[in-house]
Write a structure and sequence with these properties.
Blueprint: H1 10-14, E1 19-21, E2 31-35, H2 37-42, H3 47-50, H4 53-60, E3 71-73, E4 77-79, E5 82-84, E6 92-99, E7 105-111, H5 128-143, E8 150-162, E9 166-176, H6 182-190, H7 194-208, H8 218-240, E10 242-243, E11 265-266, H9 290-309, H10 313-342, H11 352-368, H12 372-383, H13 388-391, H14 397-408, H15 414-420, H16 428-439, H17 444-453
Antiparallel strand pairs: 1-3, 2-8, 4-5, 6-7, 7-9, 8-9, 10-11
Length: 483
């Protein structure tokens, strides 16, 4: 064991009512497949040591410091609108907390570590492909400036996992500010243990929103802080074209980080109705619905906090509704500011003319089903005087020329657009290509994709295929949760 490794156990100690001590299932033949060395250094871990048998043992939960208390966390959740009172970490373990080099507390968590008491009949395992998907997408999101859990490593276990077919198994080592979820509060609330709910809320305040502790009504201030964090987060998702795919309440964090990359994807053609998840038949979690769903989820959080906000339920409801009512405005402001930056208009006033430009642009993109990522980079070339790349993306040239004329009159900042709009995202056809190859034992395409998408704004020669939309024969894309 690395001599300076200290895994703290704040969650396990502070909230035993939400934790079941548990051990990871041994991996028969563990092999490190992916390691984010820069994140390891940020956590105070030696990347060279993590590549040793003992380091890989940490990344699979087999070799832990003596003070560690790995736990499966309990939570409830609304899944596609239906409430499940007992979910929890069915195939995951919180190993403990690390203090990183900037003094921040970070969870070290395993996904695919074996069955726990919350497994509900599942095998508790994970296949290599979905774990690599979370690795590449979460690291791309981080590079794009979107708050997210991080992927420290993926370790293949040497065990076959039975899904539709037998697939190579893997464990993901995930890092987060915490794994506190709306579902954590739902679980505590339905337990009827008000003291547990209060300790959970105070734990969340201390860990993520310490200013709330100084407010006259700390638990209302906690709700307001989570509302603001989620409004900002969902706006960032929309600005980069990210579809989470499964926005259940157990997949919404109190910290405001993106978590649980299952059937996630980035949109190709711009369409608010885009759905990629194979199980989202009604489009509940479609791209354009994400802000509405987020506010619905936050209302579920508010319900749990009512007895802490005020003993008078009517007064508590009034205060909570006020906090929730702030969400649309906060989201709209964050999205509008982001759109002005994407269009190179960050210095323009948020006035009616600018708002009309933004609305007309998204309408044009939707009607022509323009590639979301490529359009903004082409538009930056128009800001430098070359309109042809962006004109070539649209069906109605008269309309786009009229819009370009109005937009150009605002003197857009092309350099700002280059800093704001990525060249490279984890395009769905490239992700599938890389995961298929990795499942068959060739990790070169995956390694290259990670290298490309973690430097998303810098256009580089030789990487043209990574900036291109999916080929016509890619077909209708669906993603799966991987469990």
């Amino acid at each position: 064991m690395s001599a300076d490794l200290l895994l703290q156990r704040h969650f396990a100690t502070d909230l035993p009512g939400l934790a079941i001590p548990w051990q990871a299932e041994p991996a028969p033949n563990p092999r490190l497949v992916a390691l984010d060395e820069s994140l390891a250094v940020e956590l105070g871990l030696d990347p060279a040591w993590l590549r040793t048998p003992k380091g890989v043992g940490l990344l699979t939960g087999a070799v832990l410091p003596p003070e560690a208390t790995p736990v499966a966390q309990a939570y409830a959740g609304h899944q596609f609108g239906g409430f499940s009172p007992r979910l929890g970490d069915g195939r995951a373990l919180l190993l403990g907390e690390l203090i990183d080099t900037e003094g921040r507390m970070r969870d070290l968590h395993l996904k695919g570590a074996g069955r726990t008491p919350f497994a509900r009949g599942g095998d508790g395992l994970a296949a290599l492909g979905p774990m690599l998907r979370e690795y590449v997408v979460s690291e791309a999101m981080h590079a794009l400036g979107v708050p997210t859990t991080r992927s420290l490593a993926v370790v293949s276990t040497g065990r076959q996992v039975l899904r539709e077919d037998a697939l190579p198994g893997a464990v993901l080592a995930r890092v987060a500010s915490s794994h506190l979820r709306v579902g954590s509060f739902q679980y505590a609330a339905i337990s009827g243990d008000l003291d547990l709910l209060r300790r959970l809320a105070d734990h969340a305040i201390a860990r993520h929103h310490p200013a709330a502790a100084e407010a006259d009504l700390p638990h209302l201030a906690l709700l307001e802080a989570v509302v603001a964090a989620q409004a900002s987060l969902i706006a960032k998702w929309m600005l980069v074209g990210f579809v989470h795919g499964v926005m259940n309440t157990d997949n919404m964090t109190i910290s405001g980080e993106t978590i649980d990359y299952g059937p996630c994807a980035f949109i190709d053609a711009f369409d608010p109705a885009t759905v990629y998840s194979s199980i989202d038949h009604a489009g509940r979690y479609a791209f354009g619905n994400q802000a509405v769903v987020a506010q619905w989820n936050l209302a579920r959080l508010a319900e749990t906090l009512l007895p802490l906000i005020d003993p008078d339920q009517e007064r508590a409801i009034e205060l909570a509704v006020g906090a929730l009512d702030a969400f649309p405005g906060l989201y709209a402001d964050a999205w509008a500011a982001g759109m002005r930056a994407k269009l190179g208009l960050a210095d323009q006033a948020d006035n009616e003319a600018t708002a009309t430009l933004v609305a007309d642009w998204t309408s044009l993109m939707h009607r022509s089903r323009v590639d979301h990522t490529a359009a903004y980079r082409a538009l930056a070339r128009a800001a430098r005087g070359d309109n042809e790349p962006v004109r070539g993306l649209f069906l109605d040239l008269r309309e786009v020329d009229e819009w370009l004329s109005r937009w150009s009159a605002q003197e857009p900042d092309a350099a700002l657009m280059d800093r704001t709009n990525p060249v490279y995202i984890p395009r769905n056809h490239l992700v599938e290509e890389a995961l298929t190859a990795a499942t068959d034992g060739d990790h070169s395409l995956f390694d290259r994709l990670v290298e490309v998408v973690t430097a998303p704004y810098d256009e580089r020669p030789g990487l043209e295929r990574y900036a291109q939309p999916a080929p016509d024969d890619f077909g209708t894309y669906q993603t799966f949760c991987g469990t």
